[in-house]
Design brief:
alpha/beta; 8 helices; 6 strands; globular; binds NADPH dihydro-nicotinamide-adenine-dinucleotide phosphate; plastid
C-alpha cells in the first residue's frame, strides 16, 4: 500500500517542495497540514501534485485547539499514519514586541515548538499503530539554534536558560515572553524554538524509540535563502541574503534540492 505522510506548513517553501518530491515517488499520499486551505490547494496545483496524491487538512499550529481538531479530523479520515514531518515555522526577526498564539504563548515558540510538540504527542499512537516498515517523525531543525556551528554563533544566540519564562507561561504578563525569562527578541525566540524542536526529538527517541520502533530525527535542510521564512525581514536583507549564501558561505540550497533531502529521510 501507499504510505501516508503528514507535512505541516506544506503551502510554501521547503514543505511544498517536500510534498511534491514525495508525491512524485508514487509511494506516498501527502496530507498537507496547513493554516490557509486555499493557499495550500493553489500551491499543490502550481507545482503539479496530482489530485490522488494529496489532501489538504486545516491545521493552525498557533492554536492548540486547532492542533487537537486536526488530530481528530485526521483520525476520522481512516488513514494510517506512517510518517509525520513537522516543518512549519514562523520567524519574526524584526518584531519589536511579542505577538501571541490563541492560548497566549509567544508566537514563534508557540507555533514552532508548542504546536508541534502537542501534534507529535497526539499522533504518536497513530504512528505506533502503523504497520509500515519505516515509521518516522521528523522535525525540521536549524543550525542557527546550534552553537557548535558558525551560524549558531551569530548573536543573539539561542539560550533556554533555566526555562523560567516557559514555566511561567511565555505570556508576557506574569512571565517573560522568552523561554529564558529575558527581554523579547524575535530572532532569538526563533532560535530557541528550533533548539526545543531538536531536544524534543532527542527526548522522544530516548523515551519511545525502542518501544515503538519509530525513528525520531531532526534535520537541517541547508540554507534555503529564498523561502517565505524571511518575509518579515527588512527588504535589504531579503535582497542580499540569497547571493550572500550562494557565493560567500556556499550554504545555499534551492527549495527543490532541500525538499529532495527532506523527502529522502522519509
Ligand atoms: P516558509 O515560510 O516558506 O514556510 C513556512 C510554512 O509554515 C508555511 O507554509 C506557513 O504557512 C507555515 N506556517 C506558519 N505558521 C503556521 C501556523 N500557525 N500553522 C500552520 N502552518 C504555519 O519557510 P521555509 O520553507 O524556509 O521553512 C520551513 C522549515 O525549514 C522551518 O521549520 C524553518 O525553520 C526551516 N529552516 C529553513 C531554513 C531556510 O533557510 N529557509 C534553514 C533552516 C531551517 P503559510 O503558507 O500559510 O504562511
Amino acid at each position: 500500500r501507499k504510505g501516508t505522510v503528514i507535512i505541516t506548513g506544506a503551502s510554501s517553501g521547503l514543505g511544498l517542495a517536500t510534498a511534491k518530491a514525495l508525491a512524485e515517488t508514487g509511494e506516498w499520499h501527502v496530507i498537507m497540514a496547513c493554516r490557509n486551505f486555499l493557499k495550500a490547494e493553489k500551491a499543490a496545483k502550481s507545482v503539479g501534485i496530482t489530485k490522488e496524491n494529496y489532501s489538504v487538512m486545516h491545521l493552525d499550529l498557533a492554536s492548540l485547539e486547532s492542533v487537537r481538531q486536526f488530530a481528530d479530523t485526521f483520525r476520522r479520515s481512516g488513514r494510517p499514519l506512517d510518517a509525520l514531518v513537522c516543518n512549519a515555522a514562523v520567524y519574526l526577526p524584526t518584531a519589536k514586541e511579542p505577538t501571541y498564539t490563541a492560548e497566549g504563548f509567544e508566537l514563534s515558540v508557540g507555533t514552532n515548538h508548542l504546536g508541534h510538540f502537542l501534534l507529535a504527542r497526539l499522533l504518536l499512537d497513530d504512528l505506533k499503530q502503523s504497520d509500515y516498515p519505516y515509521k518516522r517523525l521528523i522535525i525540521v531543525g536549524s543550525i542557527t539554534g546550534n552553537t557548535n556551528t558558525l551560524a549558531g554563533n551569530v548573536p543573539p544566540k539561542a539560550n533556554l536558560g533555566d526555562l523560567r519564562g516557559l514555566a511561567g507561561g511565555l505570556n508576557g504578563i506574569q512571565s517573560s515572553a522568552m523561554i529564558d525569562g529575558g527581554d523579547f527578541d524575535g530572532a532569538k525566540a526563533y532560535k530557541d524554538s528550533k533548539v526545543c524542536n531538536m531536544l524534543t526529538m532527542q527526548e522522544f527517541h530516548r523515551r519511545y524509540n525502542e518501544e515503538t520502533g519509530i525513528t525520531f530525527a531532526s534535520l537541517y535542510p541547508g540554507c534555503i535563502a529564498t523561502t517565505g521564512l524571511f518575509r518579515e525581514h527588512i527588504p535589504l536583507f531579503r535582497l542580499l541574503f540569497p547571493p550572500f549564501q550562494k557565493y560567500i558561505t556556499k550554504g545555499y540550497v534551492s527549495e527543490e534540492e532541500a525538499g529532495g533531502r527532506l523527502a529522502q529521510v522519509n
